[in-house]
Amino acid sequence: MSLTSSYLMTTKNVEPFFNSLITAQAPETFTLKFLQSLEFKSTNDRLFIGVLKGLGFLDEAGKPTNRYYDFLDQSQSKKVLAEAIKETYSDLFAVNKEANKLDVMEIKNKFRTLTQGKNSDHVLSLMANTFKALVDYAQWDNLESKIKDKENNTRKVNESITVPEKNTINGNNNEQKLNSNFLNGMAQSQFHYDINIHLPESRDQAVYDALFKSLKEYLF
Predict the structure, then answer these.
(1) Could you tell me the CA-to-CA distances from 200 to 197, 204, 214, 217 in Å, in that order?
(2) pLDDT tens digit string along 57-88?
(3) What backbone phi and psi angles, to 5 degrees, belong to 118?
């Protein structure tokens, strides 16, 4: 979560400023000179550079980011800004999911709580006014549905790569079938035994008769 500390001294130029960005070619680096070329020459206007950095339109070196270039697409400019606001003021949206619908006083009070009294009442008012002006310029229609679509797509991807659980029921059935087939096969098989007997040397016939009689009793 985050909450930008950037704010404007006056918000009267918010709409014309962002409109000028859309029509101007993106600079290699967003400098004070470039800002003045857009006809924003007031010292108060210089704070727009900090706001753009807070919104993720510029990196710390002042170079335009992908979000800046996405914003130049007039068919989605205000939606891009809305997404940037939700990310930049995520602490506020964590407290109230519809923070974009709050009035200035409500926003100010939320900021007071989130900043834990670190900012003066005047600064809190400037922060609230800046947030409100950005919100009013951005487009919020269908933003929530767009976010839900992204979450659903992510969920579908995760489900598609889930390894299915082993079907233990089918596995047990297959194992039982194998055991049954094996036992049936054993029952149907015929076994043959070959017995080799080494007879002792003897000339007495009675010895052999007694031996075979004993074998008959135990084997047959």
Answers:
(1) 9, 11, 15, 20
(2) 999 999 999 999 999 999 999 999 999 999 99
(3) -75, -20
